Amino acid sequence: MKWRETVWMAVAWMCVVGAAQAQTPSHQGMRYEAQRVPSSGATVSRSEAKDVAEAPVTDDTDPCSSEKPAMKPVSKPVHVRTIVIDPGHGGENEGAIGVARIHEKYLTLQVAQLLADRLRELLPDVEIVLTRQRDESISLSERIEVANRLNADLFLSLHFNNSLNPLAIGFESFWGGDYWAADMQKAGEEITDEIRELRTRTGAASERMGRCFNHAMRHRFDVLDRGVKTGDYTVLTRAKVPAVVLEMAFLSHAEEGMSAVRPDYQARLVQALTDAVMNYVNGL
Q1: Does the structure show a pLDDT above 90 at 20?
Q2: 32-68 burial string, b = 16+ CB within 10 Å, else e?
Q3: Burial of residue 73, with CB atoms counted within 10 A of its CB: 0-12 exposed, 13-18 middle, 19 or more buried
Q4: Strand, coil or helix: what is 227?
Q5: Can you give the pLDDT at residue 244?
């Protein structure tokens, strides 16, 4: 074979290989859901146990826009008198320790205080109550009892997530589902028709608040929406008022965990939380 023919064949083969590589999807930057791995003493994600590739964010709004996200009306505006904000953890219960080496209990308190200030500005006639104002230990039962005693119109338990999987990323929300029934049965309490009707009504409101949160977070952050889920958590199963647990970000993720300690990132979280509450109040 002549040398010119050899050279041209080599060039042609390189072009074919290059084209094939260009059409092969890159896995660089692909984010995966965390996998729940039982481990004694280990803090893991509260998410469902499965590894799946990140679904694309379908919200076409600008996450950096200062405009409030639009939602389709689903009900009439809610008359709100009291909102209880629960900064997760505190005192001896330090919560997660992320890549920034800052305890979750400090971050939840910072965000909760900022959110309370903002809601007091927007809703001057609404009483905004925090379950804790400083770094102190409060039991789960005591936290939700604050909301039950005040007959609050909304209970928001703020948390940051953590996982053994360093690629776990994103936000998610939880409401109580039907777990309250098992909780009452275990305690030997009677489930009357009145109680069932109350829990059905507050459950529907809780799920709607979770959806308001996820929608608002998609608007503010271009990151994985892990969904609105049911959770068997004390602050939800013993809630007699609309109640949600909100996981705002993963402290164990290299980028998200470092961002969570920044004031500008926390300000965006507060914007999203405020949008969610206002959409809920306005019946969206």
Answers
A1: no
A2: bbbbbeeeeeebbbbbeeeeeebeebeeeeebeeeeb
A3: exposed
A4: strand
A5: 98
Q: Cα(255)–Cα(134) distance, rounded to whole angstroms?
A: 27
Pairing of strands 243-250, 154-161: parallel
Distance of CA 275 to the CA centre of its chain: 14
Q: What is the mean pLDDT of residues 145-164?
A: 98
Q: Do the domain assignments include residue 201?
A: yes
Q: What is the pTM assigned to this prediction?
A: 0.76
Angle at 242 between CA 160 and CA 158, to 5 degrees: 15
The answer to whether the beta carbons of residues 165 and 52 sit under 8 Å apart is no
Whether residue 67 is contained in a domain is answered as: no
Half-sphere exposure of 235 (CA within 13 A, CB side): 28
Q: Which amino acid is at 187?
A: A
Asked if residue 85 belongs to a domain, the reply is: yes
Give the DSSP letter string of 96-137.
-B-TT--BHHHHHHHHHHHHHHHHHHH-TTSEEEES-SSS--
Measure the CA–CA gap between 253 and 221, rounded to whole angstroms: 15
Q: Are strands 127-130 and 154-161 parallel, antiparallel or unpaired?
A: unpaired
Instruction: Match 């995966």 to its residue by tokens.
Output: 32
154-161, strands of its sheet edge to edge: 127-130, 82-87, 154-161, 243-250, 171-175, 225-230
Q: For residue 30, how far is the Cα from the chain centroid?
A: 20
In degrees to the nearest 10, what's the CA dihedral of 247, 249, 250, 251? -110
What mean pLDDT is reported for the chain? 81
Q: What is the CATH number of the domain that holds 142?
A: 3.40.630.40
Number of folded domains in the chain? Answer: 1
What residues make up the domain containing 201? 74-281
Residue 190 in domain: yes
For residues 69 and 82, give the distance between their C-alpha atoms in angstroms, rounded to a whole number: 24
pLDDT digits (tens, 9 = 90+) for 174-191: 999 999 999 999 999 999
